[in-house]
Fold these 2 entries.
Entry 1:
Amino acid sequence: MNYRSFLIYGLALCFSGILIGQNDYVMQREQMIKTQLQARGIKDPLTLYSMTNVPRHEFVPKNLVEHAYRDGALPIGSDQTISQPYIVAFMTETLKLKSTDRVLEIGTGSGYQAAVLGKIVDSVYTIEIIKDLAMSAKSRLKNLGYQNVVVKWGDGYHGWPEKAPFDAIMVTAGAEAIPQPLLDQLKDGGHMVIPVGPSDNVTYLVSVLKKKDRIITKELFPVRFVPFTRNE
């Protein structure tokens, strides 16, 4: 085998390895959809489509890639986590999203939830208070081609008034109460999902519907989230 043939053979093996690796991730996502989501009642076609097509392994630290599709949360640094796939799907489904929606997310983290939302809606505006996470998520989402997701470093309590009103708002950190600025920035008829509860007690996932200036809330089930962080 001459050098040119050897080089072509080596490239073919490398490319074959990449394809096998990617196919393995596809299979893991399909298994995740069946056993973790559909088996627990997730039915929304848009949510299932998005969870199937967002590569979760791209949003976890390299040393945890092999665990990316497991049934649980994973650390992403700075004492933050990427949520369990079921929770990501449930919160997404709860918002009753449409393809034309403009969505605000509070708590970007690694950018995974924003990417899931971005596969469904027209535009996503996501805020992260930890600068390193905000910058890395912004770069990651850009490199993966999520052009309809905009990341901002800042205090999510105040929302993003310049981009309001929003059809839906998702908060991925436990708050002691629903921030009033977020309610103000939610459209009439819009939905919000947010973990709410005392910092030293049980936190419940809460769905919020804004209807003709009335706020209708419903406790869904107890959850565990990192605390809602504020600028001092």
Entry 2:
Amino acid sequence: MVAFHRIFVIDFAGLGLGEAPDANRFQSVGTDTLGHVAVSWSGKLNLPTLQRLGLGNIRVDHPLFGIDPVAVPMGFFGRLHMAAQDNQPATGLREMWDYNGLTRTQSVLATLPEAGYPVTIAAPFQSYLQTQDAAEKVQLGSNQDAFRVLNELLYRPSSGMALVMLPDFRFAGERGDIEGFGETLVHADQALGQVIHDMGVNDLLLVTASHAVDPTATVTPTREYLPIIAYSASRPSTHALGIRRTLADVGATVLENFGLAGHAAGHSFLNEFTQ
């Protein structure tokens, strides 16, 4: 029996949480997307939804300006470290969703539909996502489009998974637009609050990022830790997920939820929700 009937994965693509241990290999020493935006933005970066979910609790050793930890977070929270030896925009997506099958590389985004669980991908289609033929695909051009599609999906009765990528963070990061990045975060936080309000009790929300783009850096993408926050109204007791060694843990969690754990490349954190 599945633990959650539906899983919604929101990819805040571009939102990093500070340089990864191997940042020096990717010209990313000193990068810190969220930290730099929080300090440099002209106004206080007010992110009440993400703060309640535990965003400020992820790195209490290096606090985020204006994003304080909360005593009782609504979500499970942690950091992801990319394991791949390259750092292209699609590298994180592949690591999050691909695994080695018996004869070839397989995708979580194809395995789920083959097992009878529909997958919807709403994103600006890079070549990797475009090849996911088993999934229903919705082309996006903005975060506003993304949340509109997500809100429509919330009112569908079907089970399965939806991957919704927010494209505006990457655009702002690549332009070096700290003001735009901050404004995009504030608007996304507001929209995320509505998503949480509209979720069903048997839904699971995973907020993460497939890569980082620090708007103060000259290189893109930047090699940083990436967020992972999990929320369900049916799991009121939460705690830290720690530092995950690969983005594949996200795909592994989705697979285990639908009884397909034997296919996973990473380590599922689904059991964290039942402790």
